[in-house]
Amino acid sequence: MNALTSLPQFPWLSLVIFLPLGGALLCLLHGGRDAECRWLALTTSLATFAITIWLFFSFGQGGTGWLLTEETFWIERFGIRYSLALDGISLLMVLLTGLLQLVGVLLAWPVQRQTGLFFALLLVMESGLMGIFLAHDLVLFYLFWEIALVPMFFLIAFWGQERGHQAALKFFLYTLAGSLCMLLSIIGLYLLHGEQTGHYSFLIRDLLQTELTTAQELWLFGGFLAAFAIKSPIVPFHTWLPDALTESPAVGSVDLTGLLIKTGIYGLIRIAFPLFPVATGLFLPILAALALAGLFHAAWSAYHQDDIKRLLAYSSISHLGLVLLGLAAWSLTAWQGSLLLMVTHGVTTGGLFALVAMIRQRTGSRSLHRLGGLWSQAPCLSAMFLLFALASLGLPGLANFAGEILVLLGTFESHPGWAVFGMVGVVFAAAYMLRLVQGTIWGPARQEKLVMTDLSLREWLVLAPLAVITLWLGLYPAPLLTPLESPVLMLLGGLP
After folding, report:
1. Cα Rg of the chain, angstroms
2. What is the pLDDT of residue 7?
3. Are the C-beta atoms of residues 13 and 55 closer than 8 Å to each other?
4. What is the full DSSP assignment across 244-281?
5. CA pair distance 126, 93, nearest whole angstrom
6. Domain range annotation of the chain
7. Are 178 and 230 in contact (CB under 8 A)?
8. What DSSP line would sit under 177-222, residue for residue?
9. How distant, in Å, are the alpha carbons of 149, 251, 414 from that of 482?
10. Which regions of 15-136 does DSSP assign to beta strands (E)?
11. What pLDDT is attached to residue 3?
12. Are 226 and 178 in contact (CB under 8 A)?
């Protein structure tokens, strides 16, 4: 246990991973009783979120080194350990996971078909995501990486839209190909470390001491980059995401864009960059070029979409291009902005996907050509839609603005040209978001005979926390920036 905490060695990190797994098992055991499964899922996700809140308030002031660690032998013969570690970066991602999974359970409350299995899959995915953000052993990281993949495949395939099976298969094949590349790099690094030291280990802190040639670094870095670029997704490996988001159920869209695609960026930060510093330095200009290509291509594609869900899918790719640009700039300010934007994007885009599901439920459509005039029929729903859309385009005073401006300022310090192109790309976001707002909530009503209800109590419970966080982080993002400073400085300096 790190000296930063005087708490007894209670396994808090293991608890946030395995509590959702326990809830999933209970949901399966009560599979025939839909009401009990809903309340089990809600209770489990609420308890998990409460623990992440406690962790944030206990360790949110940051500090040097790891804030909380757990480690024990697992498969000692092969040097595999059960090793978990929490720092400021993983703290924010764990907090975001707890929040969006709780929102997701409330959003999925009306699900009728195979309710127990549906909520069990949601909780298993939460466990996998928590494990990804906390694992400090590469085998453990890979295990959780695959655990988070499987539930999303079934959610898209069996609870998605008409083309859910095709979208799920595309999602699975893309991510599986990347995972196999990562597995080869993990094994290669493990063998090289063992040959050099005589001590075979998958622990990241041990592997950091491995001496590699430039060629070895490039090959191993390439394997990790393939997995992380596909999952992020970085252009041109992004084509699976629009289909997966369009066909997935509402909660699947929230989890996919708010959490799952962030695991690729997190993997770059936590694993690829520290383990392969020479390859990272060589690849940074390439990553910046891919980031700018994604920023512009996805923004242009978003502007020309008619399906709201598909528009938001390309919007997410564009935002992640800006996140990647900040990482490529390799400065404290830009990295803090990128990590903050990862969190705020999850909140604002999660709210938008939830609203799209509510609009589809009321109108039977997600087409901009068939919607319009919703403000006069459902003013509260429309006001929420406007709030999250404005936050997504980076309006000052709302959540995304602080992250975007920090990315651009930090990038400008070291690469002014990159920052100028990035700023133009941010302007594109305003174009497609304003088109989205105009076509959805304003203008003439295109379905005159439609009688819409406004937000229900459950829908208020879904949206209100996200709206409050959007306003709070827009006006005062400092609580999320404080825990980032120390781990970001360590990563930028190449320290373990």
Report:
1. 22
2. 39
3. no
4. HHHHS-HHHHHHIIIIITHHHHHHIIIIIHHH-HHHHH
5. 12
6. 288-496
7. yes
8. HHHHHHHHHHHHHHHHHHHHHS----BHHHHTT----HHHHHHHHH
9. 31, 30, 23
10. 68-75, 80-86
11. 39
12. yes
Total residues belonging to the chain = 496
How far apart are the C-alpha atoms of 407 and 391, rounded to whole Å?
16
Q: How far is CA 121 from CA 27, 308, 350, 359, in A?
A: 9, 26, 19, 25
Burial class (CB in 10 A: 0-12, 13-18, 19+), 110: exposed
pLDDT of residue 407: 96
194, 271 in Cβ contact below 8 A? no
For residue 395, the 8-state DSSP code is: -
Q: CA–CA separation, 200 vs 496, rounded Å?
A: 18
Q: How many CB atoms lie within 10 A of CB 374?
A: 22
Question: What is the reported pLDDT for 1?
Answer: 38
- pLDDT computed for residue 347 by the predictor: 96
The rounded distance, in Å, linking the Cα atoms of 62 and 52 is 15
Rounded distance, CA 456 to CA 176, Å?
40
First to last CA, the chain: 16
374 in Cβ contact with 446 (< 8 Å):
no
Measured CA to CA, the distance from residue 423 to residue 416 in angstroms comes to 11
**Residue 143 zone, left/alpha/beta (φ > 0; ψ -120 to 50; rest):** alpha
Smallest Cα–Cα separation from 109: which of 42, 28, 24?
42
Q: Cβ contacts of residue 123 below 8 Å, gap of 6+?
A: 20, 21, 23, 24, 27, 41, 44, 45, 101
Q: Which pLDDT value is given to residue 177? A: 93
**Ramachandran angles phi, psi of 20, nearest 5°:** -60, -35
For 304-336, b where at least 16 C-beta lie within 10 A, e where not — what string?
ebebbbbbbbbbbbbbbbbbbbbbbbbbbbbbb
Low-confidence ranges of the chain (pLDDT < 70): 1-8, 31-32, 62-63, 445-451, 494-496
- Residue 119 makes CB contacts below 8 A (sequence gap 6+) with 24, 27, 37, 38, 40, 41, 105, 108, 111
Token pair, residue 133, equals 């953000």
pLDDT score, position 376? 83
d(CA 260, CA 130): 11
Contact assessment for residue 308 and residue 359, using Cβ atoms and an 8 Å cutoff: yes
CA angle at 251 for the pair 246 and 254, rounded to the nearest 5°: 70
**CA–CA distance, 352 with 468 (Å, rounded to integer):** 14
d(CA 222, CA 279): 9
Alpha-carbon span 85 to 421, nearest angstrom: 37
Residue 427 is predicted with a pLDDT of: 86
Unique residue bearing structure tokens 């039977």: 364
